[in-house]
Design brief:
alpha/beta; Rossmann fold; seven-stranded parallel beta sheet; Glycerol-3-phosphate (1)-acyltransferase; seven-stranded mixed beta sheet; single chain
Length: 487
Protein backbone atom coordinates (compact mmCIF):
# COMPACT_ATOMS: atom_id res chain seq x y z
CA UNK A 1 0.00 0.00 0.00
CA UNK A 2 3.09 2.24 -0.18
CA UNK A 3 4.64 3.56 -3.38
CA UNK A 4 8.32 2.73 -4.03
CA UNK A 5 10.43 5.77 -3.23
CA UNK A 6 13.52 6.00 -1.08
CA UNK A 7 14.53 4.41 2.20
CA UNK A 8 13.07 6.01 5.34
CA UNK A 9 15.32 5.61 8.39
CA UNK A 10 13.47 6.40 11.61
CA UNK A 11 13.89 6.13 15.36
CA UNK A 12 11.75 4.37 17.93
CA UNK A 13 10.51 7.80 18.99
CA UNK A 14 9.32 8.41 15.41
CA UNK A 15 7.29 5.21 15.51
CA UNK A 16 5.82 6.23 18.86
CA UNK A 17 4.87 9.63 17.43
CA UNK A 18 3.11 7.96 14.50
CA UNK A 19 1.10 5.78 16.87
CA UNK A 20 0.28 8.74 19.11
CA UNK A 21 -1.07 10.63 16.08
CA UNK A 22 -3.28 7.72 14.97
CA UNK A 23 -7.01 7.60 15.68
CA UNK A 24 -8.13 5.86 18.83
CA UNK A 25 -10.28 2.76 18.87
CA UNK A 26 -10.31 -0.96 18.03
CA UNK A 27 -10.78 -0.34 14.32
CA UNK A 28 -7.04 0.37 14.19
CA UNK A 29 -4.97 -2.79 14.30
CA UNK A 30 -1.38 -3.23 15.47
CA UNK A 31 0.16 -6.49 14.23
CA UNK A 32 3.51 -7.52 15.70
CA UNK A 33 5.69 -10.32 14.41
CA UNK A 34 7.20 -12.12 17.42
CA UNK A 35 10.66 -13.67 16.92
CA UNK A 36 13.26 -11.03 16.16
CA UNK A 37 10.70 -8.23 16.40
CA UNK A 38 9.24 -8.33 19.91
CA UNK A 39 12.02 -10.53 21.28
CA UNK A 40 15.71 -10.67 20.46
CA UNK A 41 16.46 -14.04 18.87
CA UNK A 42 14.15 -16.97 18.28
CA UNK A 43 11.94 -18.71 20.82
CA UNK A 44 12.36 -22.10 19.15
CA UNK A 45 16.01 -22.09 20.26
CA UNK A 46 14.97 -22.09 23.92
CA UNK A 47 12.61 -25.00 23.29
CA UNK A 48 15.24 -27.06 21.48
CA UNK A 49 17.87 -26.43 24.16
CA UNK A 50 15.32 -27.39 26.81
CA UNK A 51 14.81 -30.74 25.12
CA UNK A 52 18.56 -31.28 24.73
CA UNK A 53 19.13 -30.57 28.45
CA UNK A 54 16.39 -33.02 29.37
CA UNK A 55 17.81 -35.71 27.08
CA UNK A 56 14.50 -36.10 25.25
CA UNK A 57 15.63 -34.85 21.86
CA UNK A 58 17.27 -37.18 19.35
CA UNK A 59 20.72 -35.89 18.27
CA UNK A 60 19.69 -36.22 14.62
CA UNK A 61 16.77 -33.84 15.18
CA UNK A 62 19.08 -31.29 16.77
CA UNK A 63 21.51 -31.51 13.84
CA UNK A 64 18.71 -31.23 11.26
CA UNK A 65 17.28 -28.20 13.04
CA UNK A 66 20.64 -26.43 13.27
CA UNK A 67 21.51 -27.15 9.64
CA UNK A 68 18.10 -25.91 8.51
CA UNK A 69 18.54 -22.73 10.52
CA UNK A 70 22.07 -22.11 9.24
CA UNK A 71 20.97 -22.58 5.64
CA UNK A 72 18.16 -20.07 6.09
CA UNK A 73 14.53 -20.21 5.06
CA UNK A 74 13.88 -19.05 1.51
CA UNK A 75 10.20 -19.68 1.09
CA UNK A 76 7.18 -21.51 2.43
CA UNK A 77 8.55 -24.90 1.37
CA UNK A 78 11.72 -24.37 3.44
CA UNK A 79 9.61 -23.23 6.36
CA UNK A 80 7.38 -26.33 6.15
CA UNK A 81 10.47 -28.54 6.30
CA UNK A 82 11.86 -26.63 9.26
CA UNK A 83 8.51 -26.73 11.03
CA UNK A 84 8.24 -30.47 10.40
CA UNK A 85 11.61 -31.04 12.08
CA UNK A 86 10.69 -29.03 15.17
CA UNK A 87 7.15 -30.40 15.54
CA UNK A 88 8.43 -34.00 15.47
CA UNK A 89 10.07 -33.21 18.79
CA UNK A 90 6.64 -32.76 20.37
CA UNK A 91 4.92 -35.83 18.93
CA UNK A 92 3.29 -37.84 21.71
CA UNK A 93 3.25 -35.01 24.22
CA UNK A 94 0.07 -33.39 25.47
CA UNK A 95 -0.76 -29.72 24.88
CA UNK A 96 -0.74 -29.24 28.66
CA UNK A 97 2.90 -30.41 28.82
CA UNK A 98 3.93 -27.93 26.14
CA UNK A 99 1.99 -25.13 27.83
CA UNK A 100 3.91 -25.68 31.06
CA UNK A 101 7.23 -25.77 29.22
CA UNK A 102 6.32 -22.64 27.25
CA UNK A 103 5.33 -20.69 30.36
CA UNK A 104 8.50 -21.69 32.18
CA UNK A 105 10.78 -20.89 29.24
CA UNK A 106 9.11 -17.52 28.74
CA UNK A 107 9.53 -16.66 32.42
CA UNK A 108 13.18 -17.70 32.63
CA UNK A 109 14.65 -17.19 29.15
CA UNK A 110 12.42 -15.71 26.46
CA UNK A 111 10.68 -12.95 28.43
CA UNK A 112 13.90 -11.17 29.47
CA UNK A 113 14.77 -10.79 25.76
CA UNK A 114 11.71 -8.63 24.99
CA UNK A 115 12.92 -5.42 23.35
CA UNK A 116 12.04 -2.41 25.55
CA UNK A 117 11.16 -0.45 22.42
CA UNK A 118 8.71 -3.15 21.32
CA UNK A 119 7.20 -3.19 24.81
CA UNK A 120 6.64 0.57 24.73
CA UNK A 121 5.08 0.41 21.26
CA UNK A 122 2.70 -2.32 22.39
CA UNK A 123 1.77 -0.35 25.51
CA UNK A 124 1.05 2.78 23.46
CA UNK A 125 -1.15 0.87 21.01
CA UNK A 126 -3.06 -0.61 23.94
CA UNK A 127 -3.50 2.81 25.51
CA UNK A 128 -4.94 4.06 22.22
CA UNK A 129 -7.50 1.27 22.34
CA UNK A 130 -6.07 -0.39 19.23
CA UNK A 131 -6.57 -4.07 18.47
CA UNK A 132 -3.10 -5.47 19.19
CA UNK A 133 -2.13 -8.85 17.75
CA UNK A 134 0.99 -11.01 18.02
CA UNK A 135 1.16 -12.51 14.53
CA UNK A 136 3.74 -15.26 14.28
CA UNK A 137 4.51 -18.45 12.42
CA UNK A 138 5.57 -19.94 15.78
CA UNK A 139 3.21 -22.15 17.76
CA UNK A 140 0.87 -21.02 20.51
CA UNK A 141 3.19 -22.60 23.08
CA UNK A 142 5.75 -19.96 22.12
CA UNK A 143 3.45 -17.01 21.48
CA UNK A 144 0.68 -17.16 24.08
CA UNK A 145 2.87 -16.80 27.21
CA UNK A 146 4.28 -13.61 25.69
CA UNK A 147 0.85 -12.30 24.77
CA UNK A 148 -0.40 -12.85 28.32
CA UNK A 149 2.62 -11.13 29.88
CA UNK A 150 2.39 -8.19 27.47
CA UNK A 151 -1.35 -7.71 27.94
CA UNK A 152 -2.13 -8.65 24.32
CA UNK A 153 -5.50 -10.34 23.80
CA UNK A 154 -5.15 -11.60 20.22
CA UNK A 155 -2.67 -14.02 18.64
CA UNK A 156 -2.10 -15.53 15.22
CA UNK A 157 0.10 -18.66 15.24
CA UNK A 158 0.77 -22.06 13.72
CA UNK A 159 -1.80 -24.51 15.02
CA UNK A 160 -0.48 -27.94 15.98
CA UNK A 161 -2.51 -31.07 15.28
CA UNK A 162 -3.83 -33.04 18.24
CA UNK A 163 -4.61 -36.73 17.75
CA UNK A 164 -7.61 -38.69 19.00
CA UNK A 165 -5.60 -39.74 22.06
CA UNK A 166 -5.15 -36.09 23.08
CA UNK A 167 -1.44 -35.93 22.22
CA UNK A 168 0.32 -33.92 19.54
CA UNK A 169 0.86 -35.71 16.23
CA UNK A 170 3.95 -33.74 15.24
CA UNK A 171 2.17 -32.11 12.30
CA UNK A 172 0.72 -28.62 11.79
CA UNK A 173 -3.03 -28.24 11.76
CA UNK A 174 -3.79 -26.24 8.62
CA UNK A 175 -1.73 -23.57 6.87
CA UNK A 176 0.95 -21.81 8.87
CA UNK A 177 0.96 -18.00 8.97
CA UNK A 178 4.28 -17.73 7.12
CA UNK A 179 4.90 -15.50 4.11
CA UNK A 180 1.70 -15.13 2.12
CA UNK A 181 0.04 -17.31 4.74
CA UNK A 182 0.57 -14.64 7.40
CA UNK A 183 -0.79 -11.94 5.10
CA UNK A 184 -3.88 -14.07 4.49
CA UNK A 185 -4.32 -14.70 8.22
CA UNK A 186 -4.12 -10.98 8.99
CA UNK A 187 -6.71 -10.15 6.33
CA UNK A 188 -9.01 -12.84 7.69
CA UNK A 189 -8.55 -11.55 11.24
CA UNK A 190 -9.22 -7.96 10.19
CA UNK A 191 -12.42 -8.94 8.42
CA UNK A 192 -13.75 -10.82 11.44
CA UNK A 193 -12.82 -8.10 13.95
CA UNK A 194 -13.83 -5.00 11.95
CA UNK A 195 -10.23 -3.78 11.71
CA UNK A 196 -9.42 -1.15 9.07
CA UNK A 197 -6.15 -2.35 7.55
CA UNK A 198 -5.50 0.96 5.80
CA UNK A 199 -5.43 2.64 9.23
CA UNK A 200 -3.47 -0.18 10.87
CA UNK A 201 0.17 -0.80 11.80
CA UNK A 202 2.45 -3.81 11.34
CA UNK A 203 6.00 -4.54 12.51
CA UNK A 204 8.39 -7.29 11.42
CA UNK A 205 12.06 -8.15 10.95
CA UNK A 206 12.03 -10.83 8.23
CA UNK A 207 12.02 -10.68 4.45
CA UNK A 208 9.31 -13.36 4.34
CA UNK A 209 6.98 -10.84 5.98
CA UNK A 210 6.90 -8.35 3.10
CA UNK A 211 3.37 -9.54 2.12
CA UNK A 212 2.32 -9.25 5.78
CA UNK A 213 3.65 -5.71 6.12
CA UNK A 214 2.06 -4.73 2.82
CA UNK A 215 -1.41 -5.51 4.16
CA UNK A 216 -1.49 -2.39 6.35
CA UNK A 217 -1.26 1.34 5.80
CA UNK A 218 1.55 1.83 8.34
CA UNK A 219 4.21 -0.90 8.00
CA UNK A 220 7.61 -0.74 9.73
CA UNK A 221 10.71 -2.88 9.22
CA UNK A 222 12.13 -3.50 12.69
CA UNK A 223 15.60 -5.07 13.11
CA UNK A 224 15.29 -5.88 9.39
CA UNK A 225 17.11 -8.68 7.63
CA UNK A 226 19.04 -7.74 4.50
CA UNK A 227 16.10 -8.78 2.31
CA UNK A 228 13.56 -6.80 4.28
CA UNK A 229 15.85 -3.79 4.42
CA UNK A 230 16.01 -3.76 0.61
CA UNK A 231 12.26 -4.20 0.33
CA UNK A 232 11.66 -1.40 2.83
CA UNK A 233 13.91 0.93 0.83
CA UNK A 234 12.01 0.12 -2.37
CA UNK A 235 8.67 0.83 -0.71
CA UNK A 236 9.74 3.76 1.49
CA UNK A 237 8.75 1.90 4.62
CA UNK A 238 10.18 3.12 7.92
CA UNK A 239 13.14 1.00 9.01
CA UNK A 240 15.07 0.91 12.27
CA UNK A 241 17.07 -1.34 14.57
CA UNK A 242 16.18 -1.60 18.22
CA UNK A 243 19.02 -1.45 20.72
CA UNK A 244 20.33 -4.96 21.21
CA UNK A 245 21.45 -6.60 24.42
CA UNK A 246 25.10 -5.86 25.24
CA UNK A 247 27.70 -8.60 24.77
CA UNK A 248 29.54 -9.98 27.78
CA UNK A 249 33.28 -9.27 27.70
CA UNK A 250 36.13 -10.33 30.00
CA UNK A 251 36.25 -6.75 31.28
CA UNK A 252 32.62 -6.95 32.40
CA UNK A 253 33.23 -10.29 34.09
CA UNK A 254 36.10 -8.72 36.04
CA UNK A 255 33.98 -5.70 36.84
CA UNK A 256 31.18 -7.88 38.14
CA UNK A 257 33.57 -9.69 40.49
CA UNK A 258 34.84 -6.31 41.70
CA UNK A 259 31.26 -5.15 42.12
CA UNK A 260 30.37 -7.82 44.64
CA UNK A 261 33.72 -7.47 46.37
CA UNK A 262 33.08 -3.74 46.69
CA UNK A 263 29.58 -4.34 47.98
CA UNK A 264 30.67 -6.75 50.70
CA UNK A 265 33.81 -4.80 51.55
CA UNK A 266 31.98 -1.49 51.81
CA UNK A 267 29.24 -3.00 53.89
CA UNK A 268 31.67 -4.71 56.27
CA UNK A 269 33.68 -1.51 56.68
CA UNK A 270 30.63 0.60 57.42
CA UNK A 271 29.16 -1.93 59.81
CA UNK A 272 32.46 -2.23 61.65
CA UNK A 273 32.78 1.52 62.07
CA UNK A 274 29.23 1.72 63.34
CA UNK A 275 29.79 -1.03 65.88
CA UNK A 276 32.95 0.71 67.09
CA UNK A 277 30.78 3.77 67.66
CA UNK A 278 28.30 1.70 69.63
CA UNK A 279 25.42 1.73 67.11
CA UNK A 280 24.50 -1.29 64.98
CA UNK A 281 21.90 0.72 63.04
CA UNK A 282 24.38 3.49 62.27
CA UNK A 283 26.80 0.82 61.07
CA UNK A 284 24.15 -0.77 58.87
CA UNK A 285 23.27 2.60 57.34
CA UNK A 286 26.91 3.49 56.71
CA UNK A 287 27.59 0.04 55.28
CA UNK A 288 24.61 0.14 52.93
CA UNK A 289 25.58 3.53 51.53
CA UNK A 290 29.29 2.72 51.23
CA UNK A 291 28.65 -0.75 49.78
CA UNK A 292 26.15 0.67 47.29
CA UNK A 293 28.54 3.39 46.14
CA UNK A 294 31.54 1.07 45.74
CA UNK A 295 29.56 -1.65 43.95
CA UNK A 296 27.96 0.75 41.47
CA UNK A 297 31.31 2.42 40.82
CA UNK A 298 33.01 -0.92 40.18
CA UNK A 299 30.25 -2.09 37.82
CA UNK A 300 30.22 1.12 35.79
CA UNK A 301 26.57 1.68 36.66
CA UNK A 302 25.28 5.15 37.51
CA UNK A 303 21.82 6.31 38.55
CA UNK A 304 19.57 8.85 36.83
CA UNK A 305 16.86 9.57 39.38
CA UNK A 306 13.63 11.53 38.87
CA UNK A 307 11.79 12.63 42.00
CA UNK A 308 14.55 11.78 44.49
CA UNK A 309 13.04 14.24 46.99
CA UNK A 310 10.14 11.84 47.54
CA UNK A 311 12.53 9.38 49.22
CA UNK A 312 13.02 11.74 52.15
CA UNK A 313 9.55 13.28 52.37
CA UNK A 314 7.79 10.65 54.42
CA UNK A 315 10.14 8.26 56.18
CA UNK A 316 9.66 5.74 57.59
CA UNK A 317 7.79 4.27 54.63
CA UNK A 318 7.23 1.06 52.73
CA UNK A 319 9.34 1.38 49.56
CA UNK A 320 8.10 -0.71 46.64
CA UNK A 321 10.21 -1.57 43.60
CA UNK A 322 9.52 -3.49 40.39
CA UNK A 323 11.92 -6.43 40.49
CA UNK A 324 13.80 -7.26 37.26
CA UNK A 325 17.25 -8.57 38.21
CA UNK A 326 19.83 -8.93 40.95
CA UNK A 327 21.13 -5.49 39.99
CA UNK A 328 18.08 -4.09 41.81
CA UNK A 329 19.79 -4.82 45.14
CA UNK A 330 22.78 -2.62 44.29
CA UNK A 331 20.53 0.14 43.01
CA UNK A 332 18.51 0.11 46.23
CA UNK A 333 21.68 0.50 48.30
CA UNK A 334 22.91 3.43 46.25
CA UNK A 335 19.48 5.03 46.12
CA UNK A 336 18.17 4.73 49.68
CA UNK A 337 21.55 4.88 51.45
CA UNK A 338 20.30 3.19 54.61
CA UNK A 339 17.71 3.18 57.36
CA UNK A 340 15.77 0.35 55.76
CA UNK A 341 15.26 -3.39 56.15
CA UNK A 342 14.19 -5.68 53.28
CA UNK A 343 11.36 -8.17 53.04
CA UNK A 344 12.18 -11.06 50.70
CA UNK A 345 11.14 -14.58 49.77
CA UNK A 346 12.55 -17.36 51.93
CA UNK A 347 14.66 -18.80 49.12
CA UNK A 348 16.91 -15.72 49.11
CA UNK A 349 18.16 -16.52 52.60
CA UNK A 350 20.50 -19.07 50.97
CA UNK A 351 21.35 -17.00 47.90
CA UNK A 352 25.08 -17.30 47.25
CA UNK A 353 25.46 -13.60 46.40
CA UNK A 354 23.07 -11.82 48.74
CA UNK A 355 21.88 -14.30 51.39
CA UNK A 356 24.47 -13.44 54.04
CA UNK A 357 24.13 -9.72 53.45
CA UNK A 358 20.34 -9.86 53.67
CA UNK A 359 20.49 -11.69 56.98
CA UNK A 360 22.79 -8.99 58.34
CA UNK A 361 20.23 -6.40 57.19
CA UNK A 362 17.62 -8.05 59.42
CA UNK A 363 15.55 -9.13 56.41
CA UNK A 364 12.12 -10.62 57.06
CA UNK A 365 12.11 -13.80 54.97
CA UNK A 366 8.65 -14.92 53.84
CA UNK A 367 7.60 -18.47 53.01
CA UNK A 368 5.17 -17.82 50.17
CA UNK A 369 3.77 -21.35 50.45
CA UNK A 370 2.75 -20.85 54.09
CA UNK A 371 0.26 -18.02 54.57
CA UNK A 372 0.22 -18.37 58.36
CA UNK A 373 4.02 -18.20 58.53
CA UNK A 374 4.07 -15.25 56.14
CA UNK A 375 1.77 -13.21 58.37
CA UNK A 376 3.89 -14.05 61.41
CA UNK A 377 7.13 -13.20 59.60
CA UNK A 378 5.79 -9.73 58.78
CA UNK A 379 5.33 -8.85 62.46
CA UNK A 380 8.98 -7.79 62.95
CA UNK A 381 8.72 -5.63 59.81
CA UNK A 382 5.70 -3.82 61.24
CA UNK A 383 7.62 -3.25 64.47
CA UNK A 384 10.63 -1.85 62.59
CA UNK A 385 8.38 0.59 60.75
CA UNK A 386 6.90 1.76 64.03
CA UNK A 387 10.42 2.23 65.39
CA UNK A 388 11.36 4.45 62.44
CA UNK A 389 13.09 2.04 60.02
CA UNK A 390 11.70 1.88 56.47
CA UNK A 391 10.91 -1.40 54.73
CA UNK A 392 11.83 -2.32 51.14
CA UNK A 393 9.81 -4.97 49.31
CA UNK A 394 9.16 -6.17 45.76
CA UNK A 395 5.36 -6.47 45.64
CA UNK A 396 5.49 -8.95 42.73
CA UNK A 397 7.29 -11.44 44.97
CA UNK A 398 9.69 -12.42 42.18
CA UNK A 399 11.53 -10.98 39.19
CA UNK A 400 9.30 -10.10 36.24
CA UNK A 401 10.29 -11.54 32.83
CA UNK A 402 9.25 -8.38 30.91
CA UNK A 403 9.07 -4.67 31.72
CA UNK A 404 5.41 -5.18 32.66
CA UNK A 405 5.24 -5.67 36.44
CA UNK A 406 3.54 -8.89 37.51
CA UNK A 407 0.55 -9.03 39.80
CA UNK A 408 1.21 -7.27 43.12
CA UNK A 409 0.78 -9.27 46.32
CA UNK A 410 -0.95 -7.72 49.33
CA UNK A 411 1.78 -8.08 51.96
CA UNK A 412 3.46 -4.74 51.37
CA UNK A 413 0.17 -2.90 51.52
CA UNK A 414 -0.93 -4.66 54.72
CA UNK A 415 2.41 -3.64 56.22
CA UNK A 416 1.88 0.04 55.46
CA UNK A 417 -1.72 -0.03 56.71
CA UNK A 418 -0.82 -1.79 59.98
CA UNK A 419 2.14 0.48 60.71
CA UNK A 420 0.39 3.68 59.61
CA UNK A 421 3.11 4.70 57.15
CA UNK A 422 2.95 5.75 53.47
CA UNK A 423 3.94 3.74 50.41
CA UNK A 424 6.65 5.15 48.13
CA UNK A 425 6.85 3.51 44.64
CA UNK A 426 10.34 3.18 43.15
CA UNK A 427 10.10 2.53 39.39
CA UNK A 428 13.22 0.92 37.89
CA UNK A 429 13.19 1.29 34.13
CA UNK A 430 16.10 -0.74 32.83
CA UNK A 431 17.91 -2.82 35.45
CA UNK A 432 16.79 -5.87 33.49
CA UNK A 433 18.57 -4.56 30.41
CA UNK A 434 21.92 -4.18 32.19
CA UNK A 435 21.55 -7.48 34.05
CA UNK A 436 18.83 -9.78 32.79
CA UNK A 437 16.56 -11.89 34.96
CA UNK A 438 18.85 -14.89 35.60
CA UNK A 439 22.18 -13.38 34.58
CA UNK A 440 25.33 -13.22 36.71
CA UNK A 441 27.11 -10.48 34.75
CA UNK A 442 26.41 -6.74 35.07
CA UNK A 443 26.82 -4.48 32.04
CA UNK A 444 27.81 -0.84 32.56
CA UNK A 445 25.26 1.86 31.87
CA UNK A 446 22.78 4.27 33.41
CA UNK A 447 19.92 2.89 35.48
CA UNK A 448 16.88 5.14 35.27
CA UNK A 449 14.76 5.44 38.41
CA UNK A 450 11.54 7.35 38.99
CA UNK A 451 10.48 7.91 42.58
CA UNK A 452 6.74 8.55 42.68
CA UNK A 453 5.09 10.69 45.36
CA UNK A 454 4.28 8.99 48.69
CA UNK A 455 0.87 7.34 48.85
CA UNK A 456 -1.13 7.84 52.04
CA UNK A 457 -2.88 4.58 52.95
CA UNK A 458 -4.49 5.79 56.20
CA UNK A 459 -7.97 5.86 54.65
CA UNK A 460 -7.68 2.52 52.80
CA UNK A 461 -10.02 -0.28 53.73
CA UNK A 462 -9.68 -4.04 53.22
CA UNK A 463 -12.80 -4.05 51.04
CA UNK A 464 -11.19 -1.77 48.46
CA UNK A 465 -7.64 -3.13 48.78
CA UNK A 466 -7.59 -5.07 45.49
CA UNK A 467 -8.64 -1.99 43.54
CA UNK A 468 -6.14 0.21 45.36
CA UNK A 469 -3.29 -2.23 44.71
CA UNK A 470 -4.12 -2.46 41.02
CA UNK A 471 -4.07 1.35 40.87
CA UNK A 472 -0.53 1.38 42.27
CA UNK A 473 0.55 -1.30 39.79
CA UNK A 474 -0.96 0.73 36.94
CA UNK A 475 1.10 3.73 38.02
CA UNK A 476 4.22 1.62 37.40
CA UNK A 477 3.02 0.61 33.94
CA UNK A 478 2.11 4.20 33.05
CA UNK A 479 5.48 5.52 34.27
CA UNK A 480 7.42 2.89 32.35
CA UNK A 481 5.47 3.65 29.17
CA UNK A 482 5.76 7.45 29.55
CA UNK A 483 9.00 8.16 31.33
CA UNK A 484 9.31 11.50 33.20
CA UNK A 485 11.05 14.12 31.14
CA UNK A 486 10.53 12.36 27.80
CA UNK A 487 8.02 13.43 25.18
Amino acid sequence: MSDPETSTAVTAADLMDAVAAAPEGPQVGAFFDFDGTVIAGYSVTSFMLHHVKNLDLHPRTTIDTLVSGWQGLHGEEDFRKFLGITLRTWAGRTPEELEKIGNRLFRDEIGPSVYPEAWRLIRLHLEKGHTVVLASSATRFQVEPAAKALGVEHTIYTAVEVGEDGTLTGHPDGRSPYGEGKAAAVKEFAASHDVDLDASFAYSNGGEDVPFLATVGHPAAVNPSAGLRRAAAERAWPALDFDGRPWTTPVEIGRTVATFAGMMGGFATGLGLGLLGGSRRAGLNLGIGLGGDLSLMASGVSLDVHGARHIWEAQPAVFLFNHQSQLDVLVLGGLLRGNFAPVAKKELANNVLFGGLMRLLETAFIDRADNAQAVKALEPAVERLREGTSIVIAPEGTRSPTPTPGKFKKGAFHLAMQAGVPIVPLVFRNTGELMSRNAMIIHPGVVQVAVLPPIDVSSWTREELDERIEGVRQSYIDTLAHWPGEG
